[in-house]
Design brief:
- By secondary structure, the chain is of the alpha+beta class.
- Helices cover 23% and strands 37% of the residues.
- The strands form three sheets. It has a six-stranded antiparallel β-sheet.
- The termini are far apart.
């Protein structure tokens, strides 16, 4: 696959400047623009035959203009001068018919990022279609080789993607960078007759050189599926619960959503006015590290162009900071935290035990490895999700379980965290190990 973009960074910068110049000439009091392009390929092999080969190449021009406190936005995939001007004109037309909003506008100039950073986010993977097919085939075959009980496959996939962008505004900010994101995944089905179970695994990296042997991914997916055979139902009870690390990232995601600006100013969060209050146990520490080299959520600035910085968002269990954009901060009478567009590399401090150690600490309870449904009410904090996993006795997995529901209230769940495991995984912007919760309700038979 070619490593080249269709446009150089100077060309994208020149286009961004043209937008700013034309918007000012057309009467906008302020303007911000994002120019981006990306391309890649994804290959899926299923039962050792090529299932899909997909190529993607796209580009985009997003323009936001302000007429005083009136805001308008328009976008285009056409980079021609005529299309650029038409997009600006469309954004201005929208702004003229939009109600004034005293929180609308660009960030304070003093908060904008002042210098570029090289965060090592761009590692093109020059993998040919034939090579990608071979990698996916080896990954899937490794799953089939684990056991004859691996009966079917939903496929093994290999994806290589790269993109670049320039973000600019009329306060003089202009910066951008290129990124890559690659993954290898495998999903298989184990069992026979009425006892069939599926499971999967994937690895995602900026740099494909960091991938383990793809066969290890297929092997692990197969072992996860096999370990779920013979799953039973549980009777309704209350007991300790461990969220496996990939699912624990979702718990942190629930917290971030609840203390993000949009939820707070709309008053749709169960954690309103929680700044400075204790939500988690004393040992809980969550740090935001936007400038980690090569990490999936690293950036020197947010979607508003505001400089990002290291901070502690939870310290000794207390809420130290919200996640605010320029707009949501103004709605709350606060200052932006540089989180327009989301969080940046949230690191949750781990305890002293790996997953096996957490199982021993729990003794008897439920290890959850799959969640189903979207049963979270952010207004009340009520949490109810379909689940599957393993029943644990005497600190060891006793048997797999399925067709159960785990329930509680997120405020209580956060308070009842007993320990964070050392088996840290990164999923998106969150990095955390498995989480042991003292007590939750299990609904079953």
């Amino acid at each position: 696959m070619s490593q080249g973009f269709s446009h150089s960074r100077p060309v994208l910068k020149a286009l961004a400047q043209q937008v700013l110049d034309y918007a000012a000439k057309a009467g906008a009091t302020a303007c911000e623009v994002d120019v981006s392009e990306g391309f890649g390929q994804s290959i899926t092999v299923r039962r050792q035959a090529v299932d899909t080969i997909e190529y993607n190449r796209d580009k985009g021009l997003g323009i936001t203009v302000y007429l005083g406190q009136r805001r308008g936005h328009a976008s285009s995939s056409d980079f021609s001068e005529h299309a650029m001007q038409a997009t600006v004109d469309a954004a201005l037309a929208i702004a003229r018919f939009t109600a004034e909003d005293d929180c609308a506008g660009l960030p304070d100039a003093s908060l904008l990022a002042k210098k570029s950073m090289n965060l090592d986010l761009f590692h093109p993977w020059d993998v040919s279609v034939e090579q990608a097919i071979d990698i996916a085939a080896r990954c899937e075959q490794a799953a089939f080789d684990v056991s004859p009980l691996i009966k079917n496959s939903e496929g093994a996939s290999v994806s290589a993607q790269q993109s670049q962008f320039i973000s600019a505004n009329s306060l003089g900010f202009m910066d951008g960078f290129a990124t890559t994101r690659h993954y290898v995944s495998c999903s298989v089905i184990a069992g026979e007759g009425d006892d069939m179970q599926r499971d999967d695994w994937y690895v995602s990296e900026r740099d494909a050189a960091l991938f383990k042997d793809p066969a290890a991914i297929g092997d692990y997916a197969a072992r996860r599926a096999l370990s779920r055979l013979g799953a039973r139902k549980l009777s309704t009870r209350k007991c300790p619960v461990i969220f496996e690390a990939p699912l624990a990232t979702g718990l942190i995601g629930n917290y971030v959503y609840a203390v993000s600006g949009g939820s707070l100013y709309r008053k749709t969060s169960f954690l309103l006015d929680s700044l400075g209050k204790q939500i988690f146990p004393d040992f809980m520490q969550i740090s935001e590290r936007p400038h980690l080299k090569g990490a999936m959520a690293s950036s020197p600035f947010d979607d508003d162009g505001v400089a990002t910085k290291n901070r502690e968002v939870v310290k000794n269990g207390h809420v130290e900071g919200y996640f605010l954009s320029t707009y949501s901060a103004r709605k709350l009478g606060m200052q932006t935290t540089g989180n327009a567009g989301g969080s940046h590399n949230l690191l949750v401090k781990s305890g002293k035990h790996n997953l096996d150690g957490l199982l021993r600490e729990m003794g008897k309870g439920l290890l959850v490895t799959e969640l189903l449904g979207q049963g979270v009410n952010y207004v009340t904090g009520d949490y109810s999700r379909g689940a599957a996993g393993y029943w644990v006795e005497n600190g060891k997995i006793a048997y797999p379980v399925h067709e159960i529901t785990i329930a509680g209230n997120l405020k209580q769940i956060f308070a009842d965290i007993a320990e964070i495991g050392t088996d840290t995984v990164a999923r998106g912007s969150k990095q955390i190990g498995s989480v042991l919760i003292d007590r939750m309700t299990i609904a079953g038979n």
